[in-house]
């Protein structure tokens, strides 16, 4: 019993350190257009859905923002460096990812041993009848879950970084957000590509891209022809890198992770470029507060647990 317990502890510790290291490098970023205010607000404030900032006046928003700033200033010198802003963004976004993973992990850890097996996941997600029968054809009139289960299985074994056939909490984070971790990112890119490439010819056409956008019925732009034309131009000018009229998987990879620059670092650089009025490479309290709409605003409905606790 004791040797087994020790082995589990060693394996768990290795898994945590390896996954967390990759998580820090991966930088969990919002899914908005990187040029939008929504992206800036969510990156700085975090993911948790809160609507308090919607009702704040400019004066109140500045006061709230001023109370956050000391938590960014790690060395206490009164200035926010690029590294400090980068660290803050990662902390906010990591908190969201781990909360998300914890909820899923707790809901699937049926025997409460701290790990989720594939059987536990299948039983909880799809029902006991699918355990050991994942690829059994459905009866007439029943929904066919086989493709969904196979997709989840591929994510499960890829997220299982140490190969012990169980998911720790950190591995569950990679399972639920595979696009954010190095060891699962290629799988996530392939899945995204497969979803977009509906005719399975190995390329994503502009028509397939627009069809995918229009599938989001909640997007307020879906019925605006001018918006569709803008998206078509963006696809052809910025996504189709070789100018052949379509996007292959390598172009999609560059689209999702441009130039290999960590997204959180790119966002920190972007926020400083917008707010650093004296161009010294640092942000003062005055620069942040005076440019508060860069960091918060009426569209900023999300902010992280750390922010919520401190305010």
Describe it for me?
With 311 residues, the protein is mainly alpha-helical. Helix content is 59%, strand content 4%. Helix 4 packs across helix 7, helix 8 crosses helix 11 and helix 9 packs across helix 10. It starts with a helix and ends with a helix.
Q: What's the SSE blueprint?
A:
Elements: H1 2-26, H2 37-45, H3 58-72, E1 79-80, H4 82-108, E2 116-117, H5 118-125, H6 146-159, E3 166-167, H7 169-176, H8 182-196, E4 204-205, H9 206-214, H10 225-239, E5 246-247, H11 249-256, H12 263-275, E6 283-284, H13 285-290, H14 292-295, H15 305-310
Antiparallel strand pairs: 1-6, 2-3, 4-5
Helix pairs in contact: 1-7, 4-7, 4-12, 6-7, 6-8, 8-11, 9-10
Question: What's the quick description here?
Answer:
By secondary structure, the chain is mainly alpha-helical. The chain contains 15 helices and 6 strands.
How would you describe the oligomerization state of the chains in this entry? single chain
Task: Please state the average pLDDT score.
Answer: 78
Termini Cα gap: 47 Å
Summed up, the helix count is 15
Going across the major beta sheet, what is the strand order? 1-6
Low-confidence stretches: 1-37, 297-311
Task: Compute the CA-based radius of gyration.
Answer: 22 Å
The major sheet is characterized as:
2 strands, antiparallel
Main structural class? mainly alpha
Element-level helix/strand string: HHHEHEHHEHHEHHEHHEHHH
Assess the beta-strand content as a share of residues.
under 5%
The geometry reads as globular
Helix content: 55-70%
> Would you report the number of β strands?
6
């Amino acid at each position: 019993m004791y040797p087994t317990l020790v082995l589990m502890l060693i394996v768990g510790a290795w898994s945590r350190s390896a996954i967390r290291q990759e998580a820090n490098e991966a930088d969990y970023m919002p899914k908005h257009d990187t040029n939008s205010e929504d992206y800036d607000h969510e990156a700085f404030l975090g993911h948790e859905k809160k609507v308090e900032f919607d009702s704040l006046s400019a004066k109140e928003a500045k006061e709230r923002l001023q109370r956050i700033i000391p938590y960014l200033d790690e060395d206490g010198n009164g200035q926010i460096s690029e590294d400090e802003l980068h660290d803050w963004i990662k902390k906010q976004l990591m908190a969201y990812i781990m909360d998300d993973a914890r909820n899923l992990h707790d809901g699937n850890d049926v025997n409460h041993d701290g790990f989720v097996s594939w059987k536990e996941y299948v039983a909880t997600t799809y029902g006991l009848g699918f355990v050991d029968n994942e690829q059994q054809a459905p009866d007439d009139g029943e929904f066919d879950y086989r493709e969904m289960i196979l997709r989840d299985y591929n994510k499960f074994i890829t997220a299982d970084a140490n190969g012990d056939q169980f998911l720790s909490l950190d591995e569950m984070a990679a399972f639920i957000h595979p696009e954010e971790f190095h060891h699962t990112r290629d799988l996530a890119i392939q899945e995204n590509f497969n979803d977009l490439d509906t005719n399975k010819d190995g390329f994503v056409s502009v028509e397939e891209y627009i069809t995918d956008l229009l599938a989001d019925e909640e997007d307020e732009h879906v019925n605006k022809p001018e918006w569709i034309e803008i998206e078509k131009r963006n696809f052809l000018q910025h996504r189709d890198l070789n100018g052949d009229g379509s996007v292959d998987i390598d172009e999609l990879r560059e689209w999702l992770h441009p130039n290999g620059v960590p997204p959180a670092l790119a966002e920190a650089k972007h926020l400083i470029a917008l707010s650093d009025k004296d161009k010294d490479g640092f942000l003062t309290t005055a620069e942040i507060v005076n440019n508060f709409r860069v960091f918060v605003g009426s569209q900023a409905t999300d902010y992280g647990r750390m922010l919520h606790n401190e305010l």
